[in-house]
Specification:
It is a single chain. With 213 residues, the chain is α/β, with parallel strands linked by helices. It has one domain. The protein has helices at residues 8-13, 15-27, 54-63, 72-76, 103-115, 145-148, 150-159, 165-176, 189-197, 205-209; strands spanning 2-5, 31-32, 48-51, 68-71, 89-93, 118-122, 184-186, 202-204. The strands form 2 sheets. The protein has a 4-stranded parallel beta sheet with strand order 2-1-3-4, with helices on both faces. Strands 6-5-7-8 form a 4-stranded parallel beta sheet. α9 links the parallel β7 and β8 (202-204). α8 crosses α9.
Length: 213
C-alpha cells in the first residue's frame, strides 16, 4: 500500500492545489494519511509513504524509520503524470536546509521543473551547501515536537538561532535581494514563508504541478 501525506502546512497554504493532487493520487490507488504527528498505526511497516513536506520527512524518519519514504516529486517521475507546460517560465530554485542530505529529492524537484518546461536558476549555495529555511531556525520549535520526535527535537534545538521579528524580516529581505528572477520555486513551507516575509514571490511546487489537474 502507498500512502500520500500532503503535510498540514502545505494543505493550509495551498488548499486547492493539495485537494487536486490528493484526488489525483487517490484515483491512482493511493490512500491518504492526515498528519505525520497523529496516529499512524494504520500504516503497515511494508507500506510506502509519499509526502511533499520537508518537515514531514524529518518527523517520519524518526517515527517510521522502517518504511520506504519518498517525496511526491520522486513518485510522480515514475508515473504517467501529465505535466503542465509552463512554456519556458524562468524561476530561481531554492533548496532547503532540511534537505541537505536528500539529493534524490533535490534532483527530483529539478527534473519535475524540466518536465514542466520551466527554466531554473541555481543559487550559489545549493544542494548540500544550502543553509536556508526561511526563519524556521530563528523561531521556537513547535511545542508538540519534543514529545513526538525527541531525537529530532534535541538536534533542532542545537541549531536554533533565535531572532526578533525585526531581525527576521531584515534577514529575509537581505536574502531575497540575491534572487535574479522575479519568482522562486520552493518545496518547503519554511522557505516559502521566509521568501514572502522578505518581499519575494515564492511558487510552491504543488501549485506548479497541479495547474492543469
Amino acid at each position: 500500500m502507498i500512502w500520500y501525506l500532503p503535510g498540514c502546512d502545505v494543505r493550509r497554504n495551498h488548499p486547492e492545489a493539495v485537494k487536486k493532487m490528493t484526488e489525483y493520487l487517490l484515483g491512482k490507488g493511493l490512500k491518504q494519511a492526515i498528519c505525520c504527528r497523529k496516529d499512524l498505526s494504520a500504516i503497515a511497516e511494508e507500506d510506502e509513504i509519499i509526502q511533499n513536506c520537508t518537515l514531514c520527512e524529518m518527523v517520519l524518519a524518526e517515527r517510521m524509520p522502517h518504511n520506504c519514504r519518498r517525496s511526491l516529486y520522486e513518485y510522480l517521475l515514475e508515473t504517467d503524470f501529465v505535466w503542465p507546460d509552463w512554456q519556458g517560465k524562468t524561476v530561481t530554485i531554492q533548496d532547503c536546509r532540511r534537505t541537505k542530505d536528500n539529493r534524490a529529492l533535490q534532483d527530483a524537484v529539478r527534473e519535475c521543473l524540466h518536465r514542466m518546461n520551466i527554466e531554473y536558476v541555481e543559487m550559489p549555495q545549493n544542494h548540500e551547501q544550502t543553509e536556508y529555511c526561511g526563519i524556521w531556525y530563528n523561531t521556537p520549535i513547535a511545542p508538540d515536537l519534543p514529545e513526538i520526535v525527541p531525537e529530532l527535537s534535541a538536534c533542532l534545538e542545537q541549531q536554533r538561532q533565535l531572532m526578533t521579528e525585526a531581525e527576521q524580516k531584515a534577514a529575509m529581505e537581505a536574502w531575497v535581494r540575491q534572487y535574479r528572477t522575479e519568482e522562486t520555486a520552493v518545496y518547503c513551507n519554511g522557505c516559502e514563508r521566509g521568501i514572502r516575509l522578505g518581499g519575494g514571490h515564492p511558487l510552491h511546487m504543488i501549485e506548479l504541478l497541479t495547474r492543469d489537474l
